[in-house]
Structures are given as C-alpha cells and as structure tokens.
Write a structure and sequence with these properties.
By secondary structure, this protein is of the alpha/beta class. It has helices spanning 8-17, 53-67, 71-74, 87-94, 107-118, 136-148, 153-156, 171-181, 203-212, 262-265, 307-323, 325-345, 374-383, 407-418, and strands at residues 39-40, 101-103, 127-131, 157-160, 185-191, 216-220, 239-242, 257-260, 351-353, 366-370, 386-387, 389-391, 395-398. It has 2 domains: 8-37 and 324-418, Aspartate Aminotransferase, domain 1 (Alpha-Beta Complex); 59-320, Aspartate Aminotransferase, domain 2 (3-Layer(aba) Sandwich), CATH 3.40.640.
Length: 419
C-alpha cells in the first residue's frame, strides 16, 4: 500500500494486472445520463445484477410453464430440494459446515425465529447486549423480543458505546464489558460489520468472551457475507442471520440466510417455531402430525422457499465460487487502501474517514464524515454519475465492491470528491 500514487496511470495499471478484472463483465452496470457507466459504490445497499440471473430465472419459469406442479420433482433443477443446491456454496462463504446453514425467509424474520430458540432469559440473567449504533431494525427486533418475554427494555437492553469522541468500538472495551457485566447477560447480538461506520468486529474474540460467561453469541452478518472472510464454525458462533441482496447480489428483497452451530442442531429441547419444511424429508409427505425435525439448520425452515429468489441467488453464488472469497478479500483491501490513500492525499479538512484504518477491521466500505455541506456534496456526486448513499447526520458511505469495481472507479471517485 505504500506504493500507491495519485497518478491515473497507477489505477490503470492496477486494473490491467487485476486477476479479477473480467468479473466486472459479468454484471450489468447502470448508466448515467450520458450513457456512460456510473461509479457504483452502493453494493453495501443493493448489489448489482449478474448477467446470468435472467437465464437462471427463465429456466424455472419455463419449467413452471411446461410442467406445472410436476416441476417439484421433474424440473431441470427440481424445486423440492432446490434450496439444497445453494447449501455447499453458502457454507464455504460463511466458513460453516453444510448442515449449519440454510437460505430462508428474510433477515428480520430469521432473527425472530432464532431468538425464539436462543434468547432464554432468566430472572438474574436476562439482558441482551447490542452495539449502540446497530441498524435500527436490529434495535426494533431486540426490543420486541424483550417485551415479548415480559421484561423492561430500559433495564434489559444494554448498549455498548464507543469511547467519548470516538466512532468505533475498541475490541478490548467490548471484551471488558462482557467480563464485568456478563453474569447478567443472556445473549449478545452484534453486527459482523457495522452498517454506519463500516467497522468489522473481531467475531471470534467476542464469541469466546461470551461463552466464558455462558452468554449466547449471535451476529447480524448483513454487511459481512460476501464481504469479509468468515469462519463461523471455527469461531464457535452460536447463530447468525443475514440478507443476500447487498454484497451477495441476490436481488432486491432477496431471500435471507441463517447459520446455527452444529452443537445446537440436535438439541431438541431448544424452543422452536415449527413448520412443514423443517420436518424430516423422508416422511414429510406421509402428512403425519407428529413433528420429526431435520437434524440440520433446515429444521428452522417453516415453508417451502421462493424458487425464483433462490435461482437469482444461485446465479451470484456461482460467480463467488469462481472468483473465490480469498481473492475478493485481497482485492477489497487494496481498493479501500487506495481510496483511503487518495482521500488523505487530497488534504481536504472537510472530509474525515470514520472507518478504521486497520484493514483487518473493515470490509470494502469507507464511511466519510462530511463536516460542512455534506448533503449538497452527496447530491452533486449523484448528479455526476456516482451512486453511493447518505446516512444522517453527516456521512457518505462508499463501497468499492471487488467483484465489479476497479481502481479506476476509485480514482475517478476521488477526483470528483476532490473537486
């Protein structure tokens, strides 16, 4: 990273040498008003559409048209086990065993389903620990779970906050908090990557600290899956959920994902909401009323999944498998490192990067605090063909995604920012 230069030639040479450069051609890039590719730095909100998605979905539409209900068994990709076609690739992306993952529902629905199993408050051990600036939906869900169990939100929901004057949480402070207050905590619910600052948390250390205090460790990986390297099984995470429409490019409102560690899979004493699709596959169609759970994460399924959404996600998973997450992560670190270099080199006192400089503590997002006229700057960027997003009160989030962004995108963005 010390070899970065501001010259455009550096960006052009880096793109030419990039082993992943051809993956950009696998995605549709939106155009600006002049018909040129925009600088799309919003993959942390909605990933771009793989060009193969149409064919994947049209195959299922064709089988539906020609086979009707018989498509469940006789489609080219039979619908009955369709979600299983995505299991191995999902496991590899999350560092899990295949039996520990399933694609189902949406993120918040999965959160509630798994909280029903893992949030088991007791009189003196009932608190939930959450990061203070977690995504609002996480706060809403956790608050509702606390109320559902008959506890007071103000005394049961505990927020871990950064030190005064800082934007990010220090890992040591999180671990100290768990050590000091952990005896009264039932469950910790953290993001893998904070949506606002882009900070990537040290999941393994946090999970280990939780388990020493008999705390369930759960994580929202909406900004982690497809973005950072994960080893959920080895890190001994109890459970996690995520969406697949951001870095995973599954499409707007795409089906979500869930992870449950294998140590919990055969714990049949766990409370759980039951549905037909979680029942043993070999006897499901005998239509019995006695529930027999599948001994995998699939037992948390309630209903048969939406095939068209699975097809869209499968198209993206095939691209991830070809690119490999390790190669994507290496490029991601270079892209954010280059962007950080260019912004700092411009010496613009109006811009402060609040994402950690340590590349091991961030994904492919940089959050830029604009001290004056931030919204005006954001709207001007949009008008000039840059797609990023604004977060109140003063932050522009930019995400150079390694699958379809390159070093020239970063250079062009920094030039617009500098101007």
């Amino acid at each position: 990273m010390k070899n970065f230069t501001r010259d455009l030639s550096f960006a052009m040479d880096a793109d030419q040498a990039d082993p992943l450069k051809n993956f950009r051609d696998k995605f549709f890039i939106p155009k600006d008003k002049n018909g040129k590719d925009v600088i799309y730095f919003a993959g942390n909100s909605l990933g771009l559409q793989p060009k193969t998605v149409r064919a994947y979905i049209e195959q299922e539409l064709k089988d539906w048209a020609t086979l009707g209900v018989e498509g469940h068994l006789h489609a080219k990709n039979p619908w009955l086990p369709y979600h299983e076609f995505l299991t191995q690739q999902t496991a590899e992306l999350t560092g899990a065993k295949p039996e520990e993952v399933v694609n189902m529902n949406s993120l918040s629905v999965n959160l509630h389903l798994l909280f029903a199993s893992f949030y088991k408050p007791k009189k003196y051990k009932n608190k939930i620990v959450i990061e203070s600036n977690a995504f609002p939906s996480d706060h809403y869900a956790v608050q509702s779970q606390i109320k559902f169990h008959g506890y007071d939100i103000d005394s049961t929901l505990v927020e871990v906050k950064p030190r005064f004057g800082e934007d990010n949480l220090r890992t040591g402070d999180i671990l100290d908090f768990i050590e000091i207050f952990g005896d009264s905590v039932s469950l910790l619910w953290f993001a893998g990557v904070n949506y606002y600052t882009g900070q990537s948390f040290e999941i393994e250390k946090i999970a280990n600290a939780c388990h020493k205090k008999n705390i369930i460790a759960g994580f929202d990986l909406a900004h982690s899956v497809g973005n950072t390297l994960l080893k959920l099984h080895d890190w001994n995470v109890d459970f996690a959920v995520w969406c697949n429409y951001k870095y995973m490019n599954g499409g707007p409102g795409s089906i979500g994902g869930a992870f449950i560690h294998e140590k919990h899979l055969k714990n049949y004493s766990l409370p759980k909401f039951l549905g037909w699709w979680g029942h043993d596959k070999t006897t499901r169609f005998l239509m019995g009323h006695d529930y027999v759970p599948i001994p995998t994460a699939e037992s948390w399924q309630l209903s048969n999944p939406p095939i068209l959404q699975l097809a869209s996600l499968k198209a993206s998973l095939d691209i991830f498998e070809e690119a490999t997450m390790s190669a994507l992560r290496m490029k991601s670190e270079m892209l954010t490192g280059y962007l950080e270099f260019l912004i700092k080199d411009s010496n613009n006192d109006n811009i402060e990067i609040i994402t950690p400089s340590d590349i091991t503590q961030r994904g492919c997002q940089l959050s830029l605090r604009i001290k004056k006229n931030g919204k005006e700057m954001y709207h001007r960027m949009i008008s000039e063909g840059v797609i990023c997003d604004w977060r109140e009160p003063d932050v522009i989030r930019v995400a150079p995604v390694p699958l379809y962004n390159g070093f020239a995108d970063v250079w062009n963005f920094s030039e617009k920012l500098r101007q």
